[in-house]
Amino acid sequence: MIKKNTLIDNIKTLIYALIIAVIIRSLFIQPFYIPSSSMELNLLVGDRLFVTKYSYGYSKHSFPFSPPIFKNRIFGKQPKRGDIIVFKTPSDNRTDYIKRLIGLPGDTIQFIDGNLFVNNKQILTTLIDNSKKLYCGKQQISVSTFEEKISSERSYIVSYRNDISYQNSDKYLVPKNHYFFLGDNRDCSKDSRFLSEVGYVHQDNLVGKAQFLFFSSNSRDGSIFEIWKWPNIIRYDRFLKKLR
Q1: Catalytic residue among 53, 88, 99, 209
Q2: Neighbour-count burial for 188-210, b at 16+ CB within 10 Å, e otherwise
Q3: Mean pLDDT for each 10-residue chunk of the chain (244 residues)?
Q4: 171 flagged as catalytic
């Protein structure tokens, strides 16, 4: 029989551990799982990554269940164009999305003939491969991949479908205190181009900056709980990989 004092001590230890875990998760670092292909090739379905919560300061969305403990953002820092960011979707302020930051407050964003323009300047892209296969949901699609250079110090890989690709858009004007996001898998991403579903994201909705992968498995081919499949599904080359 467990003594009463021992049981109470165990409960206290558990409570303290939970409090510490919540503090770490809220203020410092939080793990996230990638469930969709909207950021391929940079983020694959089955990737697990760490997001730093302190990178842009804190809002109510930094904490579990988004409690209304304070308004606006404290210790706020301006994100950089090209950052990969987790945010709460404006449509419900609950769902976590992960996309790449393209537009800062006051920027204009537009697609013209398939080319991305920021503040009326075309973003430089360099073709890498025009016969790549990527997933879009459960479907495999043929894409062309490009290196996109969003600034003098930041570039990354993006992809566009070879059959039907996003070509032209109206001009988006990013409002004050808001940001404009795109997925790297451009023709397989619900992002700020879809104003009724995502649209412009308020600074208070930013959760944190995606920094590096710590684990990855191909969940399409099996579960990590199926140990016998580990040799085929675990992507060892993506362990501890810093994100671009």
Answers
A1: 99
A2: bbebbbeeeebbbbbbbbbbbbb
A3: 65 78 79 95 96 94 87 91 97 95 98 96 96 90 96 94 92 98 97 94 97 93 88 93 91
A4: no
